[in-house]
Amino acid sequence: MAVIACVKESSMPYNTATVIREEKKKYIKHDQLFKELINNFFVDFLEAFFPDVHEGIDFMSIKPLSEELFTDLIIGENRRVDIVIEAKLKGKDTLIIIHIEPQSSYQKDFHQRMYNYFSLLYNKYRKPILPIAVFSYEDKHTEHNQFIIEFPFFHVLTFNFLMLELKKMNWRDYLQSDNPVAAALLGKMGYREEEKVQVKMEFLRMMLKMELNPARARFINDFFEQYLKLDEKEEQELMREISQLENAEEFTRLPNSWEERGIRKGIEKGIEKGIEKGKIEVVLEMLKEGLSIDIIAKVTHLDKEAIEKLRKMN
């Protein structure tokens, strides 16, 4: 809980309001990844982490609104609101606005920023706002999901928002779930370093159980592997565990990082079979010198496609 007094003393003959400036931060890639996950799997996200909200929303009515960019004319700063969705409550005609704000880095006054966004959204839409914050940074901090304005003599308001603190969540609690968002976020939950291989194994089991279409499966897998990366030794341990399973062959249907490494090795072997070793070195040197693929092909009498593959690999 945070308390702020909105009036301060001044040497001027009158009191002036405290101006709250939002720290400018570079737009972070991780926030964008979370936006894509939540936008594409909005229903699954609420079902996994906010079941009461999921139960109360009429999902036939949901309408994503454009990403909101507000300008504070007094301070002269732009403020961007991440995920804004219009929906109805079940059995009612009441329209509400659901605002979800992914946060990938710790910010001391984040609860204050949530209130700012709430105010801006309410001023624009004049509808009830349901604010949700998703904290995905690695360190554990004590987050405030309440913002209060009060005086010793009068309480003005208390603003609350829902929050999801991924690092404080136990990944084992979701192993029986068939929810794709829960699977994607296993790698952002709290686990010990020595549990990484086990987390990856359970993620793959969840993927098999869900039977997602190829596009959705690729998205969920890529998101997971963005945050939980195994080194070569850990990958070998994972492969050994999979090979001992009765349904080991089923795992080959899943998109995964070793699939991509296997493709790369296959390309390397194919190139080495089709091109003399010495020519590979010549081609690499010519590429370093900035010569075009057309010229290299004429000089070496090699296929342009093979040269292009060498260029991409180096």
From TrEMBL:
<protein>
    <recommendedName>
        <fullName>Transposase</fullName>
    </recommendedName>
</protein>
